[in-house]
Amino acid sequence: MKKGDPTEVKSRPRKADSSTEAPSKIARILAHLLTGASLNRFEAERMGDHCLPSTIAVLANHHGLTFKRQPERVPNNWGAPCTVTRYSLPTSQRQHAAAVLSKLQRTRPTTEG
Q1: What is the CATH number of the domain that holds 35?
Q2: pLDDT tens readout for residues 13-71
Q3: Could you list the residue range(s) of the whole structural domain that residue 65 is in?
Q4: pTM of the model as a whole
Q5: How many domains, in total, are found in the chain?
Q6: What is the 3-state secondary structure (H, E, C) of the chain?
Q7: Which among 17, 36, 78, 97 would be 20 to 30 A from 106, CA to CA?
């Protein structure tokens, strides 16, 4: 039986470098809202957030952000109308939100909150 070449370097999984790691779901949503955009749950789904109200709750309850909430009627995935909430950041919250985003980008949590 032939043994492997001792000079052969085997590839093994490495921890993700923080500079190449994808932003967390919460950071993606907050960055989007910081552009002045607004989101409802169906739009957030396309950004990888499957439960936008929970993400907004984490940003509000854990990070102290306040959001503008506007109910709206939109067609659901089957075309029937449903009521959802459109979330946006008031201008008065932009500076605080930018600080929260900076913190989130420096210390990415190990789980999506």
Answers
A1: 1.10.10
A2: 555 555 556 678 999 999 999 999 999 999 999 999 999 999 999 999 999 999 999 99
A3: 25-106
A4: 0.74
A5: 1
A6: CCCCCCCCCCCCCCCCCCCCCCCCHHHHHHHHHHCCCCECHHHHHCCCCCCHHHHHHHHHHCCCCCCEEEEEEEECCCCCEEEEEEEECCHHHHHHHHHHHHHHHHCCCCCCC
A7: 36
